[in-house]
Specification:
By secondary structure, the chain is of the alpha+beta class. The chain has three domains: 22-248, Beta Barrel (M1 Pyruvate Kinase, Domain 3); 302-401, Elongation Factor Tu (Ef-tu), domain 3 (Beta Barrel); 409-515, Rossmann fold (3-Layer(aba) Sandwich). The protein is 22% helix and 28% strand. It has 15 helices and 27 strands. The chain has an eight-stranded mixed β-sheet. Residues 1-79 have low confidence and may be disordered. Bound molecules: flavin-adenine dinucleotide.
Length: 538
């Protein structure tokens, strides 16, 4: 340990609310980056990728500190919270038993009183079990916001020991939504730089008693690793302040989201790769992800889209307009194609996948038209997905896979100019955009919706405007052999009897059939979820 003049260090954990160490608005002028309003991360109502859907229950909570950044004091102007080191911790190499096996680790850390030297590879007295992996300059010091302790204690239902996350510095400092990769932070007499987020390992999972380390990651309350730009000395109570903002660099929160959930996000991945002074290991990893995302048709796996508008679609169906909550493009699709959705319709139920046609598009918004398949049977476990999706309101989120399917105009053999499109049930959903597309391409299209029962089907206004006929009897709808190609979409029974009818009529042209009901959902393979990471602590 390094000796230096004793200072009054704060002991124990800080609590919310005003206390010593407030600075005046002049600090805001000097350092607008840290003194601006605290931005809470948006709280999606579903998840972005497959694994969080599997693990997450309910909405992701907003990331917000229990202590305010600024406070209005009558007559004194806005005061700004000082950024401080709350505790300093170091750990000795030892063992913990995980699943019956002894695992070497230095994750168990204990608070240190008095000044501690910060060297290029970390705090003095802080041991690492795998120096090669864990001791490098890009994760020399691990800082964790004190503000998250209360949040975790509430969720875990127990008091957490200081340093439980394996952090070297518990800080009253920038949250993950505020700290940017590359930010420079004055810490005691040292100068540190935000290098990367903490990607948790099984040791942390064990410490917290979580089912999976991914549960920790999904909260995005992960803290961050710092590299040491200038060695120095730190003790509890010292300042921990951003002195140079890495403007344009992603925040730690954004970094975690894109690198571990939104791996489809080509634009976001490029921004991550351009993060200031990024660890080369991350650059390589993100480069691989970017190459896969760029090569993908549409996007990989499931991504979260937000319901931006909900409209009635007739016969109890709804139109849901979906857009990327991060404003990213959706990529092209072909009329007649469908997306996959992944939902956990009832708490505790298994995740389920279904397909829904894109019935319209406005720029970077797509429209799905969903009818509840079997409302009265929800208790029996049928109609669950359509009921869930149908109930989504504006602002709700849905995990959606990229548009897929060959029930499109592109499937037509060259030279075919006449087409018959037949639909039944919700087969009308892909049929409407397909007919519109075929007409725009100048083809002669006859469109018939088969519906024996009275009443109008969903989307009928649009279908009628496109000249759809309506027929209750398939033999009447298809009296003669249809010229050219036939497209058919509808429930299994309809598709089967249509096939028989075409055979009777001796139709020998191309036929494209889409069975619109439960079935496999083609999803471009997503990268595996993050596992034992570069940057795991101890
Ligand atoms: C390519 C494709 C595109 C699709 N597009 C749409 C669409 O745009 N809009 C839409 O609402 N659905 C569409 N579907 C159907 C959708 O994927 C689901 O099958 C449907 O929502 C039922 O799922 P569920 O889990 O609610 O009901 P499930 O429990 O899977 O089914 C409940 C009961 O309803 C029957 N059923 C299933 N689907 C339908 C249906 N569409 N009409 C009548 N009965 C049905 C089932 O056979 C079962 O008996 C499409 C399916 C495919 C394959």
């Amino acid at each position: 340990m390094v000796r230096r003049p004793a200072r009054r260090a704060r002991r124990g954990r800080s609590r919310a609310g005003p206390r010593d160490g407030w600075t005046s608005t002049s600090a805001r002028k000097l350092d607008p980056g840290i003194c601006g309003p605290r931005r809470a991360c948006r709280a999606p109502t579903s998840s972005n990728g497959l694994w969080p859907v599997l693990r997450q229950r309910g909405p992701r909570p907003a990331l917000r500190s229990s202590t305010p950044t600024g406070i209005e004091l009558p007559g004194r102007g806005t005061r700004v919270r000082a950024m401080r080191v709350v505790r300093v911790q170091v750990g000795r190499a030892g063992e913990i038993v995980i699943d019956g096996r002894a695992v070497p680790t230095a994750i168990v850390k204990r608070p240190v009183e008095g000044p501690v030297a910060i060297g290029r590879l970390g705090l003095e007295g802080d041991e690492r079990v795998l120096r090669r992996r864990h001791g490098e300059e890009h994760h020399a010091v691990y800082a964790y916001p004190e503000a998250h302790y209360g949040w975790w204690e509430e969720r875990l239902g127990r008091t957490l020991a200081p340093g439980i996350f394996g952090e070297n510095l518990t800080v009253d400092g920038p949250l993950e939504t505020e700290a940017r990769i590359g930010d420079r932070i004055a810490c005691g007499t040292a100068l540190l730089q935000v290098a990367q987020p903490r990607i948790p390992c099984r040791k942390l999972r064990h410490q917290l008693g979580l089912r999976s380390s991914l549960d920790f990651l999904a909260t995005r309350r992960v803290g961050y690793y710092l590299r040491v730009l200038r060695e120095g000395v730190v003790q509890a109570g010292d300042r921990f302040e951003v002195v140079e903002r890495a403007e344009g660099s992603p925040t730690v929160d954004t970094f975690v989201r894109i690198a571990t959930e939104d791996y489809w996000d080509v634009v976001g991945l490029r921004e991550l790769i351009a993060a200031r002074d990024l660890d080369p290991t991350w650059r390589e990893d993100l480069g691989d992800k970017l190459a896969r995302a760029e090569a993908a048709e549409g996007w990989l796996g499931f991504r979260e889209l937000e319901v931006v508008r909900r409209e009635a679609a007739g016969e109890g169906a709804v139109h849901l307009w979906l857009a990327c909550p991060w404003g990213r493009p959706l990529g092209p699709h072909r009329p007649g194609q469908a997306v996959g959705v992944l939902v956990r319709p009832v708490e505790g139920s298994r995740p389920m996948r279904r397909r829904y046609a894109i019935t319209a598009r406005e720029g970077e918004r797509i429209r799905l038209t969903v009818r509840v398949a079997a409302r009265r049977s929800v208790e029996e476990g049928v109609g669950l997905v359509s009921s869930y999706v149908h109930a989504l309101e504006a602002g709700g989120r849905l995990a959606v896979s990229a548009p897929r399917g060959s029930w499109t105009a592109e499937a037509l053999p060259r030279g075919v100019r006449r087409v018959t499109v037949l639909s039944a049930g919700m087969g009308i959903a892909p049929a409407v955009p397909l007919v519109r597309d075929l007409r725009e391409a100048g083809l002669a299209v006859r469109a018939v919706h088969f519906r024996p029962e009275p009443g109008e089907p969903p989307l009928w206004d649009e279908a009628r405007a496109l000249g759809f006929e309506r027929e209750g009897d398939l033999d009447v709808a298809l009296r003669e052999r249809p010229p050219g190609a036939v497209y058919a979409a509808g429930p299994r029974g309809f598709v089967a009897s249509l096939g028989e009818r075409l055979e009777v009529l001796g139709h020998d042209g191309a036929a494209f059939v889409e069975e619109v009901g439960p079935g496999p959902v083609p999803v471009p393979a997503a990268p595996p979820p993050p596992s034992e990471p570069p940057g795991c602590d101890g």
